[in-house]
Amino acid sequence: MQPSQHALRSCLGAALAAFLMNATAAEPASHWVASWGAAQQIPEPANELAAENWRDGSLRQVVRLTLGGKQFRVRVSNVYGTAPLTLDAASVALSPQPGKADVAASPRPLTFGGNGSVTIPAGAEYYSDAIDMELKPGTDLAVSMYFKEAPARQTGHPGARATTFLAKGNRVNDAVWEDAGKTTRWYALSDVEVLAPRKVGALVAIGDSITDGYGVPPDTNTRWPDVLAARLRNQKIALGVVNAGIGGGRMLRDGLGPNLVARFDRDVLSRAGVTHALVLIGVNDMGGQHRNTPDTPADRQQLLADLKLAHRQLAERARAHGVCLIGATVTPYVGSDYYHPEPENEADRQELNKWIRTSGVFDAIADFDAALRDPARPDHLKPVYDSGDHLHPSLAGYRALAETVPLAALRKQCGGAK
After folding, report:
1. d(Cα 41, Cα 39) in Å, to the nearest integer?
2. Could you count the other beta carbons within 10 Å of the beta carbon of residue 340?
3. pLDDT tens-digit readout, 238-293
């Protein structure tokens, strides 16, 4: 019996070794990674695109990629649509200059399953076919779309801080758009992904208007995630950066867009190749409660408890997917004309920030509060970092945030199920 058992164990060992070798060999050397993206929401009436611009209309939207590659694909969104959305034609081309409608050369057709048009079901997003085109990090890509009809309900991102060009008729194959109309919103465009080596991942920055880039001049790409992406390129760190900020966003309640807990899976975990996320949220939760309710001591304590629990939930979701979660401290906003915070609200901000720094919930900390606060008045933004409304950073402030993100944390990989 002993020789037979030994032979059986040997056979099983050899089979297991062969299986592991085959599994390793079968793992692809490359994968899709998000190079650009935006959080989707239902545009409020002031930010909707007029129906006349959709009907027999073309949109040319310019986005800056953070990763390069030899192949890429585009994800078109109808996630908030209430009926199927037909994209009748689309193309891509390099944009030589943000803020200009013309592209560098004849656009390349964008296809879906080999077809030039596609109908996307309500609530869905579709990937285009892969395009063979070598792109460098920092490339500006123009995505042109043609629609015969307006969507039943629009999906978009109002805080684009980038110019979208509008033209009548099917103009997606035209390099030059003369006399194009303009808006500074994105519509029906969710991601651009590149095919990258297996070791390359992406960071999603998720938060409110400070992440979305409130106050940044259009077409300058000077939001703090943009500056961080440039910093990573300078440091030769291959990591995509996706901005999933929504102006007015809150952790716990819907605002102009869905609450952060509700959108975390779609805006972070479902994006291709995500390895890291940074969450900066809370000022609108605390400020909004103070501005719009009696804001009693019991209310404030409950809000703090709810914010801490929500952060823990995000960390658990991230950990389950092998994503490193970086917690960012909430920046000062005393003096804000919008929220008029009082000493009690400042004490709550300090308590939340202390918890973010010391709780051990996060894989790393980005101490944005310490980066922007005025040493003479720590409850205020430092004047050079203040845009003037005492809530949103200046361009120098956004740069300081980008420089505060710990690069060591971005080089770290977190274990998990991803």
Report:
1. 7
2. 13
3. 999 999 999 999 999 999 899 999 999 999 999 999 999 999 999 999 999 999 88
What's the rounded Cα separation, in Å, for the pair 379 and 330?
11
Sheet containing 57-64: order of strands: 108-109, 89-94, 140-147, 57-64, 164-168, 181-183
Q: Is 19 exposed, middle or buried (0-12, 13-18, 19+ CB in 10 A)?
A: exposed
Is residue 169 within 8 A of residue 207, CB to CB? The reply is no
pLDDT in tens, 215-229: 999 999 999 999 999
| Mean pLDDT (whole number) for 187-203 | 97
Cα angle value 408/359/327 (rounded, 5°): 45
The b-or-e profile of 294-314 (16+ CB within 10 A means b, else e) is ebeeeebeebbeebbebbeeb
Q: 75 — phi, psi (to 5°)? A: -110, 120
Q: What is the spatial distance between Cα 58 and Cα 148, in angstroms, rounded to a whole number? A: 9
Strand intervals (E) in 78-154: 85-87, 89-94, 108-109, 118-120, 125-127, 131-135, 140-147
| Prediction pTM value | 0.92
